[in-house]
Amino acid sequence: MNNGVREDGNIIHKPVLLEEVCQVFGSFALLNNQAQKIKPIIVDATIGAGGHSGELIKRGAYVVGMDADREMVKIARENLKKLTCLTGNYNDFFTIINDNFVNIERALKDLKIDMVDGILFDLGISSYHYTFDRGFSFQDPESPLDMRLSGDQQVTGADILNALPKKQLADMFLKTMPYRRSIGLSKAVLEYRNVKKIEKVGDFLEIIEKVTPLTYRERRKISNSTLPFMALRMAVNSELENLKIAIDRSWHLLKQNGVLVVISFHSGEDAVVKENFNNLTRSGEGLVSGKFVRPGELEIRDNPRARSAKLRFIQKK
Ligand SMILES: C[S@@+](CC[C@H](N)C(=O)[O-])C[C@H]1O[C@@H](n2cnc3c(N)ncnc32)[C@H](O)[C@@H]1O
């Protein structure tokens, strides 16, 4: 199995830290609170295949799901409609919007929802993305190096590699890679594009292979391509910038005692979350209990994608 895609072609996206997410929302009495007449509203800002949302619905939440990727919205809707706990109209249990989470305020306003009880961000991409032929997977050299979550975005991964000056390329790779490898890779990109335009996943793989020292290749547990591909995807989708804006906007949409939960998969993402949460506790607006939650050994063995996950949460005072 690779990235949640089985050899028989079926995809399994296993939601990361599922029980922990439900426990966090549950421990703040948002879920399973029989005394509540109205269902708590939880925004799943990254609904993906709907794994977390499904469980939140089962435990009594009304879910507003968002995803920038139209394909994922279709998948989530189909998956959630199959929940056996849905009685009657599925609109009474969830609604899903195809939009970037930076637009969370506008999305809720359109639904005439002022404030919500909880918001969840499970960052990055879903296992399904590796099957989309949009350049997310380095297992597919013939795929166009696209990497856009939404067709509304103008700039692809190939556009970035073909256009950015050397310094900016190095800065982009630095977000996920060590200094010397970032400089080496940015030089190699320039050398390649001086001869030939970068178009496909295979072109980027060739560049990465050229600059990866043998010793480094042997030492790494993950593929040499994982970090360069992640850096490019993060740039294409302005992931760190959007996360910063979205946390800020989400905070204003939380009710008193509402909870914001973020699962990150990379130190750059976690740094954004940590800094924002620290600012909110320092200003007296938020309460963070404990540090962060990581998946246990069993979950990592069962779902290797979980190995770098970190969950942080903050409650609004
Ligand atoms: C890790 S997956 C979420 C998986 C989901 N929790 C589940 O259990 O199935 C992240 C999802 O967030 C979406 N996404 C990433 N960045 C986004 C953004 N800025 N706005 C909206 N959706 C985004 C991706 O398209 C992907 O489907």
From TrEMBL:
Belongs to the methyltransferase superfamily. RsmH family. It is an enzyme of class 2 (transferase). Its main location: cytoplasm. Keywords: Cytoplasm, Methyltransferase, rRNA processing, S-adenosyl-L-methionine, Transferase. It catalyses: cytidine(1402) in 16S rRNA + S-adenosyl-L-methionine = N(4)-methylcytidine(1402) in 16S rRNA + S-adenosyl-L-homocysteine + H(+). Specifically methylates the N4 position of cytidine in position 1402 (C1402) of 16S rRNA. GO terms for cellular component: cytoplasm. This is Ribosomal RNA small subunit methyltransferase H. It comes from the Bacteria. The gene is rsmH. GO terms for biological process: rRNA base methylation. It holds the Pfam family Methyltransf_5. It is found in: Cytoplasm.
